[in-house]
Amino acid sequence: MENEVKIIVKWSGKEYHIIDLMENDTVSILKDRIHKETGVRPDRQKLLNLKFKGKAAQDDDAIGKLGIKPGFKLMLMGSREEDIAEASHAPEDMPDVINDLDIEEEEIEIEKAEIYLLKIQKRIQQYNIVELNPLREGKKLLVLDIDYTLFDHRSVAESGVELMRPYLHEFLTRAYKHYDIVIWSATSMRWINEKMKRLGVSNHPEYKIAFHLDCLAMISVCTPKYGIAHVKPLGIIWGKYKQFSAKNTIMFDDIRRNFIMNPQSGLRIRPFKRAHFNRDKDRELLKLSKYLELIAKVNDFQTLNHQKWEEYKAKNSRSDRRSDEGNDEQNA
């Protein structure tokens, strides 16, 4: 007798429960059901983690042959027709809201609180880091968020590449010359791996990612003003890799509270949102590439104020140009 298969589809920040599927039903039938729930036509659906024998499942594959377990969550990428039409016109009066906390006055107190230092020590002992590529001697460390930093995870699109921040691969290639690179996202490791694969980051020939950290490496802190916040303490990395510290580590994140435990090591990047309208004009990663190259010469990052990175870049870029001009005159 056929068994019923239940699938949870994650799409556009929501979960859709697809029920009453039978093992003999095909992927094509599944897509029709997803269409009814989400409005995304079958021909626009990309089912990211639906596999059969290590390859993407085909429309005529039976659901029962895919080895789906109870509670299986399927990631859908695709756009509804009305969303595609809307994406060709920029919305009016859209405010640029940054999801963050006004935590500046509390940073120092929280950073040094013993209860949170003990949480970090527990993560150092219990959290398992899987190295994807070997760390290199003498390199500094760059820690990167994903959502709204490298990728617009809320806009709809037919492929992940459409939502990738402009100049991503050029940025990572330039950074890799001076920095070992770590990806840290407040999501599960499975989604991190999938996103990096879809963006072409995992196997890029010009750079390598050292390892990924997920939500399980984060800790919760209590701010007197705003309550509980989940944050990314760099001390977890520093406790496992003694060659790294506040002297040679920088973290990019669009949400400042994520580096509340290490405020001096964090640089809040402008969030990349509404990719369809902004991908032709967003040059944030290109500008930050230059900043990373400039500070790679600095022995101690604790002497820097990353909040003023644009001023530092402008000032030191002029100094580099004057130095180059002086060398040219001497060689003439």
TrEMBL record:
Keywords: Hydrolase, Magnesium, Metal-binding, Nucleus, Protein phosphatase. Its EC number is 3.1.3.16. Residues 312-332 are annotated as: Disordered. It catalyses: O-phospho-L-threonyl-[protein] + H2O = L-threonyl-[protein] + phosphate; O-phospho-L-seryl-[protein] + H2O = L-seryl-[protein] + phosphate. SUPFAM superfamilies: HAD-like, Ubiquitin-like. It is found in: Nucleus. It comes from the Eukaryota. GO terms for cellular component: nucleus. Residues 312-325 have a biased composition (Basic and acidic residues). Its main location: nucleus. It holds the Pfam family NIF. This is Ubiquitin-like domain-containing CTD phosphatase 1. The lineage of its organism: Eukaryota, Metazoa, Ecdysozoa, Arthropoda, Hexapoda.
